[in-house]
Specification:
238 residues, mainly alpha, Ferritin, 7 helices, globular
Length: 238
């Protein structure tokens, strides 16, 4: 496994495979960071249930946009311009979970609870990794992601403890987002994932990360008195 630390000045000297993998991971990460706010801001910034929750939506969106800025700055250090991602429609996003629209509070809550948690997993992959500028932005982004996850967990639990209709609707949201979340880890046995690990750009295989996520999130869903969906239903990647 490659263990050296690489700075932007070293990037042109690196083998083509390393350069291609770094470009890919930065592009997809930036797309996910900006893709989140594009899902929910139009409907949920004016549509959140109260002023405090609207503030949470606004602050979360601002932080995610700043995460995009930070990843874009890292990319610019290797001559990669990701500005166009700001103008992409949701349909053009790399990851299926970011294609579409979030129009209900239940979906927003569960997105924070389940999908932002995967954002934490993704960012943890880069911690201590071989590309030093990417490693350097991880602590600040991870700290804010933990806040987004906790907000999502609290809002989901609140709905689970609400009226019968709220409970039904939040279970439906869990059923929608849980398989999308598992798919975000990608194909098990991915050869590209092995190359990321070999070059020190990631730490875990897709199946390892997905198994850790399931072990973490399933008990949290059950603690709320909600049903964990079938992990093989409505999936695209296994």
């Amino acid at each position: 496994m490659f263990t050296d630390k690489i700075d932007a000045k070293d990037f042109p000297k690196m083998p083509g495979e390393y350069r291609d993998l770094l470009v890919r991971v930065l592009t997809i990460q930036a797309d996910c960071e900006i893709g989140g706010p594009h899902l929910y801001v139009d409907k949920l910034l004016p549509g959140a249930p109260d002023a405090i929750k609207r503030l949470v939506v606004a602050r979360t969106a601002a932080e995610e946009i700043d995460h995009f800025r930070k990843v874009m700055d890292v990319a610019s250090g290797i001559g990669l311009d990701l500005t166009d991602l700001l103008r992409h429609s949701n349909r053009e996003r790399y990851v299926d979970a970011f294609r579409g629209e979030i129009a209900t509070w239940e979906d927003y809550a569960v997105f924070g609870f389940l999908i932002d948690r995967i954002g934490r997993y993704q960012m943890e992959e880069f911690e201590g990794g071989s590309y030093a500028p990417l490693d350097a932005i991880c602590p600040g982004i991870l700290s804010e992601e933990l806040g987004h996850i906790e907000n999502g967990r609290q809002f989901t639990a609140e709905l689970a403890n609400g009226t019968e209709d709220q409970r039904r609707r939040v279970q439906e949201a869990i059923d929608r987002w849980y398989p999308k979340g598992l798919d975000m880890f990608g194909h098990s046995g991915s050869k590209r994932a092995e190359r990321y690990i070999e070059w020190g750009l990631k730490h875990r295989t897709h199946e390892e990360a997905r198994a850790e996520y399931i072990a973490e999130v399933n008990p949290l869903i059950e603690e709320m008195g909600l049903q964990v969906p079938d992990p093989e239903a409505n999936r695209k990647f296994f």
